[in-house]
């Protein structure tokens, strides 16, 4: 008999397996739902979605591997989409109350809330990150130590990218990190990423399409 669905987050599996006690049929249904929700968003709003399919579990795992299991502060996840990266962060062992996913699409947020009932998920635009965090971050003195981003910075309009990068720069402390992937496999970082220096870079081939993952550190210089 399958275990009773408890709705609890288990950190032992990535991808669609993150809800403890879900029967396999339910998990397969979640995967299919994620796939079609993503496809629907892509058709109705291709620019902000920026890819044909959700991130693979290999890409998600690699992104998560750059984060400490017990971060000092919060991790803000931008463009959480169907939650592939979110699931990998939980699987890595990062506590659910330290992960703050942000997503602009209402449809995706509904899916994320169903998938991760214990996470505090923000519906909003990364161009308004600071005001979004003001109303939504728990009122305690913890800082934001990491931003993990699936935002398609190479395909969003330039003014949007500039404004998002400014928001990220302002919410991070000096030496705070931004983990970002891109489908542009060249080593040249995004030209608008001034104020950050790249400290790690790697290519994940097992993704459609293959992706480069970069880790940037805020360097504290004027931006
Ligand atoms: C490449 S997709 C996300 C892929 C995600 N890793 C997954 O596997 O589902 C990019 C996501 O960023 C979201 N997005 C794009 N622009 C945004 C913005 N300005 N603020 C917040 N989310 C945004 C899109 O709605 C989309 O869900």
Task: Please sum up the structure shown.
The chain is of the alpha/beta class and 223 residues long. It is built from seven helices and seven strands, in the order αααβαβαβαβαβββ.
Plain-language structure description:
This protein is an alpha/beta fold and 223 residues long. Helices cover 34% and strands 18% of the residues. It has helices spanning 24-44, 46-49, 57-65, 84-92, 106-115, 129-136, 158-171; strands spanning 74-78, 99-103, 122-123, 144-149, 177-182, 196-204, 211-218. A 7-stranded mixed sheet has the order 3-2-1-4-5-7-6, sandwiched between helices. Helix 7 links the parallel strand 4 (144-149) and strand 5 (177-182). Helix 1 packs antiparallel against helix 5 and helix 3 (57-65) crosses helix 4 (84-92). It is globular, with a radius of gyration of 17 Å. S-adenosylmethionine (SAM) binds at residues 38, 48-51, 54-55, 78-79, 81-82, 84-85, 102-105, 108, 125-127, 150-152.
Shape: globular
Summarize the biggest pleated sheet.
7 strands, mixed
Mean pLDDT across all residues, rounded? 84
- Return Rg in Å: 17 Å
CATH architecture: 3-Layer(aba) Sandwich
Number of domains: 1
CATH superfamily: Vaccinia Virus protein VP39
Topology-level CATH name: Rossmann fold
The largest sheet has its strands arranged as 3-2-1-4-5-7-6
- Unreliable sequence segments: 1-22
């Amino acid at each position: 008999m399958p275990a009773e669905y408890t709705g609890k987050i288990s950190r032992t599996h990535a991808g669609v397996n993150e809800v403890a006690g879900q029967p396999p049929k339910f998990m397969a249904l979640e995967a299919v739902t994620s796939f079609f929700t993503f496809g629907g968003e892509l058709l109705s709003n291709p620019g902000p979605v920026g890819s044909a399919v959700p991130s693979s579990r290999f890409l998600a795992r690699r992104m998560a591997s750059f984060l400490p299991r017990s971060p000092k502060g919060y991790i803000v996840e931008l463009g959480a989409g169907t939650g592939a990266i979110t699931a990998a962060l939980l699987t890595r062992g990062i506590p659910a109350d330290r992960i703050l996913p942000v997503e602009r699409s209402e449809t995706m947020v509904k899916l994320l809330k169903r998938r991760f009932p214990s996470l505090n998920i923000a519906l909003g635009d990364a161009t308004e990150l600071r005001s979004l965090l003001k109303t939504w971050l728990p009122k305690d003195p913890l800082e934001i130590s990491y931003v993990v981003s699936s935002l398609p910075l190479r395909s969003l309009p330039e003014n949007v990218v500039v404004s998002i990068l400014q928001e990220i720069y302002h919410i991070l402390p000096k030496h705070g990190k931004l983990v970002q992937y891109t489908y542009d496999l060249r080593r040249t970082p995004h030209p608008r990423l001034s104020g950050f220096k790249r400290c790690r870079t790697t290519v994940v081939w097992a993704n459609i399409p293959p992706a480069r993952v970069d880790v940037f550190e805020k360097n504290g210089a004027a931006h």
